[in-house]
Amino acid sequence: MDSIDIPDLAQALVIFWGTAKAYFAQPWTFYQILIVALCYATGWLISRKVEPWLESRARTIKGKPGLLRVIIAVMRRSHWVIFLLLLTIARLVTLELTWPSRTYLMALALALGWAWLTISVSSRIIHNRTVSRLIALTIFIYVALGILDLRPEATAFLDQLAIQLGDLRISVLFVLRTVIITAGFLWLASLLGNFFDSRINVVEDLSPSFKVLAGKVIKISFIVIAVMMALSSTGIDLTALTIFSGAVGVGLGFGLQKVVSNFISGVIILMDRSIKPGDTITLGETFGWIRELRARFVSVITRDGREYLIPNEDFITQQVVNWSFSDDFIRLDVDFGVAYDSDPHQVSRIAIEAAKSVGRVVPSKTPVCWMTAFGASSLDFKLRFWIRDPQAGLTNVRGQVLLALWDAFRQAGISIPFPHREIIMRTPVEVVRRDGPAAQAGGPGKRKP
Fold first, then answer.
1. 3-class SS at 41?
2. Which end of the chain is more exposed for a tag (fewer CB within 10 A), N or C?
3. 158: part of which helix (H) or strand (E)?
4. 229 φ, ψ to 5°?
5. pLDDT at 447
């Protein structure tokens, strides 16, 4: 690590402390501290009464969540707003009564207070509260150093905390600057990517698969450009990353095979449009409809509400049943049997009409019913009908058709048989009967067959 030349910073701090000590020794300094404290306490007390009323009125704003978020952020800092307004009035009154130098501390408190209020409210556009607070604190420290006129000394001190790696010198200032600039570029890239993605999704002429593919390509492109711009802005020579990129390539080849395979499989799926959001698919024992296509996996929602995150590679290497690949029409079969004394022609007509009475059965594709076999105890039939909403379930529509068949057959007097079994006992047994005089008298009566 390089030797740290602290005297410059130490001298600046000593000078700052000496000036502050001399300033705090004056009576007007304590008056200003008292005024600032009284204004803050008054603002806090007033906000306890005003803030709930203001927030309830702000909650009446409908249809503008972004605006409501900023307004609520201001309302929850109403004590700061009232404090700064009171302190501004107090400073103006003090300026009329005495010298401007005797209001320096109040001016400093006003500058720091308005800076914190503006930064904390503006950072609420970030939904993650932890990240929002971290960004607000970082920006406030930077602004506060500028207000206190300590930014050059702090910058020089952070730049002296460094290590030398060959020709590359890495300091704390360099790391902080790189992180902040990269985070800013990535955040801007994310905003632009989401904006263009939302614009693409509203274009009706594009297929769902192409919308997902275009959105992902745009987002990845913006991220790559943002990283390159951030590295260039911090003074890093991109040619120096050649060795690093080679190491990353080796790592991708050995340690991240599945990740890369799933990513490439996702790109292939989007390009060949074999599946798309909204399709009803069957993969192994999983039956459901596709909710979203991601870079690594496909989100599939089943009828029981479970969400399966299936790797993209499985859709390339395994057999997938896409119920709505070419069109939305799906044919279903229902097997049933009737008694031998039934008229097969009448049974077919009744079954077709019963299927038509179910709402989800497509009327444009007429159901058909065929006799398939002379069964052991029944005439066997197969009823075929079409639906166009498999995502609404298959078992339930089959159940509705079976109930319609049951009602129609009962009304027409057609019976549905069930197996009968006759048991023949070849070994003589003793049967006890209770229909003789002995039984009437209460005694047992026996009879051999």
1. helix
2. C
3. helix 151-160
4. -65, -40
5. 44
Are residues 148 and 67 located together in one domain of the fold? yes
Average pLDDT, the chain: 79
The tokens describing 420, both together, are: 């009968």
Same domain, 65 and 115: yes
For residues 22 and 145, membership in a common domain is answered with yes
Annotate 198-263 with DSSP letters as a single string: HHHHT-TTS-HHHHHHHHHHHHHHHHHHHHHHHHHHTT--GGGGHHHHHHHHHHHHHTTHHHHHHH
CA dihedral 265, 266, 270, 273 (to 10 degrees): 60
What tokens appear for 349 in the block? Answer: 């007509």
Do residues 318 and 335 both lie within one domain? no
Q: What are phi and psi of 331, to 5 degrees?
A: -100, 135
Q: d(Cα 387, Cα 389) in Å, to the nearest integer?
A: 6
CB 330 within 8 A of CB 343: no
Take residue 134 and report the two structure tokens written for it. Answer: 């971290």
| Closest by Cα among 82, 87, 85, 76 to 45 | 82
Instruction: Write down the pLDDT at residue 264.
Output: 82
If asked whether residues 214 and 306 sit together in one domain, one would say: no
What does the pLDDT look like over 71-87, one tens digit per residue? 777 777 888 888 888 88
Rounded Cα distance between 187 and 184, Å, is 5
pTM to 2 decimal places:
0.51
Total domain count for the chain? 4
Q: Which two tokens stand for residue 52?
A: 């709930």
Alpha helices in 297-429 (DSSP H): 312-317, 344-356, 395-412
Query: SS3 letters for 321-344?
Result: EECCCCCCCEEEEEEEEECCCCCH
Distance CA(222)–CA(318), nearest Å, equals 33
The whole-angstrom separation of Cα 359 and Cα 5 is 84
Query: Is the domain of 181 the same as that of 245?
Result: yes
Provide the residue range defining the domain that includes 125: 7-160
Q: Which of 111, 106, 176 is nearest to 145 (CA)?
A: 111
User: Chain-centre distance of CA 137, in angstroms?
Assistant: 27
Same domain, 112 and 229: no
